[in-house]
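Problem statement: downstream parser choked on a complex file, so we are re-checking the raw output for the phosphoenolpyruvate run. The parser issue turned out to be on our end (a line-ending mismatch), but while we're here, posting the original submission so the record is complete.
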Amino acid sequence: MKTEAGRTEAAKGKGKARPREVAVAGIPVSPGVAIGPVFDTTDPPAEAPRRAIEAGEVEQEKQKLAGAIAFSRKQVAKLKTRIAVLPEEAQEEIAPLLDAHLMMLGNSRLIRGARKRIETELLGAETAVGDEAEAIATAIVALKDDDKAGLARRAGEVRDIARRLVRNLTATPFRSLKDLPEGCILVAEELTPADAALLDPARVAGVATEEGGADGHTAIMLRALGIPAVLGAHGLTEAAKRGDPAVLDGAAGVVTLHPSAATLAAAKDRLAAFAKERAKLSKLRRLPAETTDGEQVELQANLEIPQELPLIAQAGAMGIGLLRTEFLFMNREDLPDEEAQVEAYTQIVEAMEGQPVTIRVLDWGGEKDMEALAEGVAPVHAGGNPALGLRGLRMLLKRPELLEVQFAAVLRVAAAAGDGDVRLLLPMVTVPEEVRAAREIYERVARRLRRRGEKLPEKLPLLGAMIETPGAALAADAIALEADFFAIGTNDLAMYTLAVDRGEAEVAHLYDPLHPAVLRLVQFATEAALRLRMPVSVCGEMAGNPQLTPLLLGIGLRTFSMNASAIPRVKQAVRALDIGDCARFARRVMEQSDPARIRELVAGFAEGVTERA
Ligand code: PEP
Ligand code: MG
């Protein structure tokens, strides 16, 4: 169901009047400009194979259907609250359609029929919904009525709502994302990080979604792939129709449908300026990240998927400061075994040619849901509130066999690489005991490998802890006694400190890494590490924001890991800074209690640096 916001005017006009330009604002997530036709994701999701059930599974299947109905109702209700941002005439057109969808998700013929098919034909819920929708749609089209277009539209609505149900029942990513039409702007209600991992940056010009926040994993993935993106664009999926011409500005956070000639010309100018700036920044590749007073700063890359390796090389990163291994577990129904992991890590470590690579063990949970772990071969229940449940190291300590395979694979790769080339990192640490427990498993796996004849270095690769919960930050001095290094994850640290979901559009305005509470925790953890002369880095999204470089340097940090495309800009910032100035500036910022004032100071300092540079 896609309506034609912006076309209403055209329909009222004579002949082929141009549809009116509609701008939809969202959260700027990945810079760059895209010009191209909209491609929406209302296509059928992954082919849901026909599924039969046993008589004893009927109740369970009906419950599954009830769950998907409730979830779909919530989605549609949310869309309804959001269309308020669209032009009035578009709202008038869309609201009744959404009401019809809500009705169909009530005690409708579709739902009653699907339930009956589960009971009498013993069909899986998604098969039952698909069959019933097809039967209803065919019957509608066959009705005796002159308004054939009206009948086709009604049939389309039934199929639409069935698709939503099937998508929610199967929870499968849009596998069609792999081969989108070249140069399109992908528009979707929501993309999971696993969906985003399937996108080909050579084909997709831009991405815009209704859901999502600036530092959620989907946003991180899109930045990593260098795809211009706007998330949290409320009203967009209702306003956009497949094939609509559009302009997406990832820095401004705006998607413009049916752009006027002036808008299009301005977008082309920005596109050219962006390319020019990128070419200029690429000249920094071989220059050192050194402040004006000679302080060396280490700029490393975060890696989400191996496809990023060429970008990392182009950016001149000094190694990988955060290798998120989740990609190995995404979009598959089984688990990667030790050999598959060895192969994947080897490819990355070899590509880095002796630069250090910090491999983080699986951070499952929260928004990073993975089929094999959620309901497949090794079911793990993250709890009613997954962000606060079995996530990261907590889950791995409950399922040590997963940790053992990963440790074994990393140890074998480290043995084949040079000394110090590989380090291990533990996600979602909250208490020192978790690091101690992980280290015991680590050493046990090393002993087992040695018995198996593997030649491991006498000193095992360093084992570090992510500092990404307020508990870990405030207990950093105690955790520092157990860990070999710290990597401060400001994305989760901000989320857990402020109680704001990093990937949720509704509360995105409250997600603020410059909140003094977050900054104080970063400072506390950094100082705990520096007191022990222990390596410490920042690998959250803050690290890649050049405006924040002076503050982080001033707090005492010297190692930053970020998405590769951010490295040149951060290097440019580093090369214009003096450490003494940064330290004075950080003291001033840390005295503040008002986030708005901090933002002002940060922006002011950055402007001064630009002027001085
Ligand atoms: C973080 O939380 O800041 C972090 C780097 O980890 P992730 O984004 O993978 O959760
Ligand atoms: Mg994290």
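For whoever reads this later: The chain has three domains: 20-43+176-262, 55-170, 298-612.
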